[in-house]
Every structure is written in structure tokens, then in C-alpha cells.
Specification:
Helices cover 42% and strands 10% of the residues. By secondary structure, the chain is α/β, with parallel strands linked by helices. The chain has a single domain, classed as 3-Layer(aba) Sandwich (Collagenase (Catalytic Domain)), CATH 3.40.390. The chain has a 4-stranded mixed beta sheet with strand order 1-2-4-3, with helices on one face. A hairpin with a 7-residue loop joins strand 3 and strand 4. Helix 1 crosses helix 5 and helix 2 runs antiparallel to helix 3. It is globular. The chain starts with a strand and ends in a 19-residue tail after the last helix.
Length: 170
């Protein structure tokens, strides 16, 4: 798996480089395959680590620039995917004032979704978009592993990757 970003945005470029670095790090894959099990997953951590290491999936990053109305709708959304653009992650421009490591963890979290979508015989997502009780699903756990490794802090606070949209709240 490789992350591709061809636009000009310093922090996203740096986050892409961090993501690709961790996707080449044997310590990262060892930590995943050593994990006992993931919730909501038919695949063992070992299988997921192997899929990640061997996949030739190219995961493209684009920046999404919301207009005024979209800024409201997507005010809590770090990133989203769109079925019309497979293997592409749209990062919300309004949500890029974050640590580079945090953005990289978003990319890794979403790349697990892309890998899950591509894996025909396995499923390892996290159901709905509430972060509650999702810490041990593959996308959350691996995203947080990436974050803690990049921060060089095993106790860094857990990230809540998917923010729930509530259209009635506007
Ligand atoms: Zn997710």
C-alpha cells in the first residue's frame, strides 16, 4: 500500500510522507500482527498486517475545499470517501489545522477502510461512525498505533477518527 498526494499543501505533504514511512516500518506491522484480535473483524491481526504489507493498493489523497454550506455540513468531518472515486480520500481543508501526525493517523485509518473494501473474503471495518466502543476495531486500533508511533508516545490520547454528522443540529 502506498499513499499518493500530488497537490501543494505543506502539512498534507508531510503527513503523506509520515504515512508512507510507517507503511514501510516493520515495527508497525509486527505490532499489528502481535495484537490478539480485533472487534468486528473476520480477519486475524496477522492476516490484516500481511494484507497491508503486500497490497499494491495506491491510496490517493485529495483536499476538499468546502463552500459555505458545505463548511457547516462537514464541520466535524476530517475526511470522507466517495464511491465515485475509488481508493481516494478527501481531506476537509477546514480540518487541516491539526498536528501532522494526527492527519497521518487519519490517512492510515482511512487506508484500512480502503484495504477492507478491496479484500473480498474478509471484513474489518467498524460499523457505524460513532467512535464509542470502537477502540479495538482494526481501523481505530491501527490508526491509533500509527499516531502513537509517530508521536513517539505510547500513551498519546486516542483519536476519534469518525465524527458523527447530525444534519438536524444545524
Ligand atoms: Zn472509519
Amino acid at each position: 500500500m502506498i499513499i499518493i498526494f500530488n497537490d501543494e499543501h505543506t502539512r498534507v505533504k508531510a503527513a503523506t510522507a509520515l504515512s508512507n514511512g510507517i507503511l514501510k516500518n516493520p515495527v508497525f506491522f509486527k505490532a499489528i500482527s502481535d495484537h490478539p484480535s480485533f472487534d468486528l473483524s473476520t480477519a486475524s491481526p496477522q492476516i490484516i498486517a500481511d494484507l497491508m504489507a503486500k497490497s499494491d493498493l495506491e491510496f490517493k489523497i485529495e483536499i476538499f475545499y468546502p463552500n459555505v454550506l458545505q463548511s457547516i455540513k462537514y464541520r466535524k468531518t476530517f475526511a470522507f470517501t466517495d464511491g465515485r472515486f475509488p481508493n481516494t480520500l478527501f481531506l476537509n481543508f477546514k480540518k487541516l489545522e491539526r498536528e501532522t501526525e494526527d492527519i497521518a493517523a487519519t490517512i492510515i485509518h482511512e487506508s484500512i477502510h480502503a484495504l477492507d473494501d478491496a479484500a473480498e473474503n474478509e471484513t474489518f471495518g467498524h460499523g457505524n461512525n460513532s467512535a464509542v466502543g470502537k477502540e479495538n476495531t482494526a481501523p481505530y486500533w491501527i490508526g491509533n498505533l500509527a499516531y502513537r508511533m509517530l508521536k513517539n508516545n505510547p500513551d498519546a490520547p486516542l483519536l476519534a477518527f469518525d465524527q458523527v454528522e447530525d444534519d438536524n443540529e444545524v
